[in-house]
Amino acid sequence: MREAYYDQLDSIFGQLGTIAREVEVAVGRATQALLTGDGEIAEQVISADASIDRQREEIEDNAFSLLSLQQPVAGDLRTIVAALRMVGELERMGDLSVHVAKVARLRVPGVAVPPDMVPTIEQMSAVAIDMVGQVAALIESRDVDAAKALAEDDEEMDRLRRVSFRELLSNDWPHGVEPAVDLALLGRYYERIADHAVSIANRVVFVVTGETPSS
Amino acid sequence: MREAYYDQLDSIFGQLGTIAREVEVAVGRATQALLTGDGEIAEQVISADASIDRQREEIEDNAFSLLSLQQPVAGDLRTIVAALRMVGELERMGDLSVHVAKVARLRVPGVAVPPDMVPTIEQMSAVAIDMVGQVAALIESRDVDAAKALAEDDEEMDRLRRVSFRELLSNDWPHGVEPAVDLALLGRYYERIADHAVSIANRVVFVVTGETPSS
C-alpha cells in the first residue's frame, strides 16, 4: 500500500517535470517568435498551451485520488498540496509564454522589439529559460541547495528589468510609445515567469525540509 | 465530530470573506493614491498587505489541520483544496493592489495618470472593486448564479483595457512614453485582479456544484 503510494507520488513529480520542460520550450519559442517576427512559431506556442492545461488537469486528478484514497497526513499531505500548487504555477508560466507569443503575433511581419533592445530581451529570456530549466531539474532531483541558488537568478532578472525601464524612459528613447509599451509588458511577463520559478523552487525546499525559505 | 468539521470549514470561508473585504479596500485605496498622488495612502496600502499575507498563512494552517485531522474525502476534500487556492488568489490580488500603489508612489507628488485618462482608470478600478466586493459576498453566500454572472463584468474590464490601449497607442497621444508605460502596466494589474475574481467565482461554483464553469 505505502509502496503504491510512493509510486503514485513519484509519478506526479515526474509529470510536473515534464510540464516544466514544456514550459521551458514555450518560453524559448515565444522569444524566438518575438525576436524574428515569425507568426507561425507564435501560433505554435499559443496552440501548444492546451497540452500544458490538459496535463495540469491530469495531475490534479491524480493528486486528488491520492488524497482521497490514501488519506495521507503531515509531510505527505503537504507534499501533495505543494504539487497541486506547483502545477498551478507551471500553468501560469505557460500562459505567460502565450502572452509573449501574442505580443510577437500582434506585430507580424514586423518585430516588436527595436534592434537596440534585442540584447536586453535576449538576456531576460535567457535568464527565464535557464530558471525554468533549473526548475524542471529541481523537481526531478529535489536538490535543496540548487533550489536555494535559484533566488540569485531572480535578482539578475530584476536588474535587467530596471535596465530596460531606464532605457525606455530615458529622454533620448527614439522609438516612441508602442515599442515602449510592448517592452514594459514583455519585461513584466518574463519577470513573472522568473517569480513563479523561484516560488516553485521554494516549494521544493519545503517538500524536502518542511521549511519555507525566507525570500 | 462532523459538526466540528463543518464549523471549522465555515470558519475558513469566513476568513476568506474577511480577506476579500481587505483586498476590496486595498484596491480602492491604491486607486485613490494613484489618482490624487497621495504618497501616505500609497504607503498604507503597501504596509497593510502584510496583514493579508498573515491571514493567508492562518487559513493555510487551518486548512491543513482540517485535512490532517478530519481526513475528508470527495466533496469535502475538494472544498478545502479550493479554499487553499482561493486564499492564494486573494493574496495575489493584494499584491496587485500593492503594485498599483507603487506606481502611485513612484510619481508622488505628481500623478501618474494624465487628466484625460482619469475616467478610464476610474472605470477600471470601479469594475475591479465591484468584482472583489462581489467575490467577498459570494464566498459568504455561495450563490452560484451570482458567481456565474461575475464573468460578464470581466468582459467590461477587457473592453476598458482595449479602449485604453487604443488611446495610448494612437498617433495623437500627447503625453509621451512614461504615462503610456504606467497606464499599460496599471491596466494589466486591474485586469489581473479581475481575472482572479472570476477564477475565485468559478471555484465557488465548483465547491457548490462539483463542476467547473467553462470560461
Automatic annotation (TrEMBL), chains A, B:
<feature type="domain" description="PhoU">
    <location>
        <begin position="19"/>
        <end position="103"/>
    </location>
</feature>
<keyword id="KW-0592">Phosphate transport</keyword>
<keyword id="KW-0963">Cytoplasm</keyword>
<keyword id="KW-0813">Transport</keyword>
<comment type="subunit">
    <text>Homodimer.</text>
</comment>
<dbReference type="InterPro" id="IPR026022">
    <property type="entry name" value="PhoU_dom"/>
</dbReference>
<protein>
    <recommendedName>
        <fullName>Phosphate-specific transport system accessory protein PhoU</fullName>
    </recommendedName>
</protein>
<dbReference type="Pfam" id="PF01895">
    <property type="entry name" value="PhoU"/>
</dbReference>
<dbReference type="InterPro" id="IPR038078">
    <property type="entry name" value="PhoU-like_sf"/>
</dbReference>
<comment type="function">
    <text>Plays a role in the regulation of phosphate uptake.</text>
</comment>
<feature type="domain" description="PhoU">
    <location>
        <begin position="121"/>
        <end position="204"/>
    </location>
</feature>
<comment type="similarity">
    <text>Belongs to the PhoU family.</text>
</comment>
<dbReference type="InterPro" id="IPR028366">
    <property type="entry name" value="PhoU"/>
</dbReference>
